[in-house]
Amino acid sequence: METRTSRKILTASKRSAPKKCFCQIELLVCINYAALRNGDKFHDLQVETSDGASFDVHFLPLAALAVGVFESYQKSGDAILRLDVSADVFKTILSLAYTGCCEIREGELISLLMAGTSLNIPSLLAHCGQYLLKDLSLFNAVDYYKLSNKYLCQHISAKIEFLIKRNFEDIIQNKSALRLSSEEMASIISDDETSICETKLADFLLRWSKCNGIEDYTFGTVVEFVRFTNIAQEDFFRITNHQEMQNLIGFKVESLLNGKRKHDGPIRTRQTAKKTRRFNVEKTRIPNAVIMTVGGWGSIPPGPCTSIETYDYIADKWEKTDLSLPSNRAYHGLEIIDRKVYVIGGYDSGGFGGPVYHSSIMVLDLETLEWKEKTPMEHKRCYVGTVAIDGQIVAIGGHDGVVRHRSVEVYDPKTNIWTPMPSTITRRSDMATVVHNHVIYTIGGFTGQEVLTSIEILRPNSDSWSFYDYLATPRSGVNAVVLGDKIYVLGGFDGTMRLRTVECFSPGASRGVFHQVPDMIKRRSNFAATVFQGKIYVSGGYSDPTVCDDCEVYCPVSNTWKELPDLNLAKSAIRQLTVTYKDANINHLIN
Q1: Is the bond preceding 507 in cis, omega lying within 30 degrees of 0?
Q2: Which of 452, 465, 324 is nearest to 394 (CA)?
Q3: What is the CATH code for 21-135?
């Protein structure tokens, strides 16, 4: 037994390391070859290109770079080597052969990929792959995906495919998804990480099928990956009544049959009356982003809490997470920078020790999901206003348990230091704060005696705040967001009653241009609001006579508000923000 084991180990030790993919090869500069090229001497090979150009070159660096060149030279036996590439492409190959680097130009990309493949030049393909990833966007992702599948390795292709999956609704919206082949489509929509609700996916596949003239059998192999049990009954029947779906009946597409088992009403007979329908429950896809609410004044038990919830827009529900704040917090600030969530200041009732007004800053690392406490602010700040700008966090005003503040300070996460900034003109707490075009706005709020209508701004590089404009209604416990080129000021408390009105303005040079926007569905103050997928999401807050769990969303296209599922815990004095797949593993935030 010992001998056999030793032999196995010995054999394994003699195995050569697996060959690296060309995209993993380190691209080095060949200094000696560059010097040889610059000397313009000792040429021993003449190359002619497909467009008639001729080049005197050195065989060694060219053959070392391109296996195909070496093989062609061996086969031809001629003094002149003829290559099926253009002069411009060959110049790029020469640059790579002599210097180890080259410039990839968009107009030559396909020709370079073809040359890299036909002449077996791994480093040229690696440079092309790097160019694709560097230039990658939602508008060219499908075209680059096709190129990577045809010419490049699975590592490059997988990175491009990941971008398409996590942004599939945007890829559909810009119409580039219509160019996907059936094989590519199946590969993309079969994955849990393809972020799209099933109704939108099924509707798109019908358009895609018509646009590309997809045959019924092939269409069925793609439709197999639609999770029909996650589609509402009304939408299911609307979708399956299309002729393209009716044509699939004979192919027995399992996902379609599973959806029918869920949505078709059973025929009630004596034999079936006691039977229940059986169907496979299909997993909901993973969204590419979630809305995260943090802390707040909870309803059960009443008081500041540690609760964290996330809204999954694909499942259309709020999820309780395993995460929680290290300590109770309400009336705090909340920002996200570089994959970290910052909880700034706030209030805790403190139990027997009495209320606590915090100067602390707690940081959640979205990679490790661990909390750390950083350098506290100079002042305690409850009802604080915060904004993130240029990778830093600005804390404005607030209440320390004794007075309302005018003071402002800025936190730099890189140095972990707070620095004073110019104070506001007016003492205020419970106000709204936003950034628009690098201008910081502080809107409304409470002085301790007066609910404010004033708006102050701090322009870039300015050493003082200035009055900008005034709201039509005084608002404390107010929230505001930036959507497009407009600032939306939402709800609040006017000193007498909770508000559901919205004031919206486009910032001008000296004052705002106001626009008419419909009221929210529910009166509320001290609620959370954030912009997500081009819409305004509002959650919780205080609505007489108690805290609420109601949520709603505003769509600027339809100019309407719509109710959303309730929070799991009614909360006011909460904050929320958007966490994308670039910030965190979303799967860890919804399960």
Answers
A1: no
A2: 465
A3: 3.30.710.10
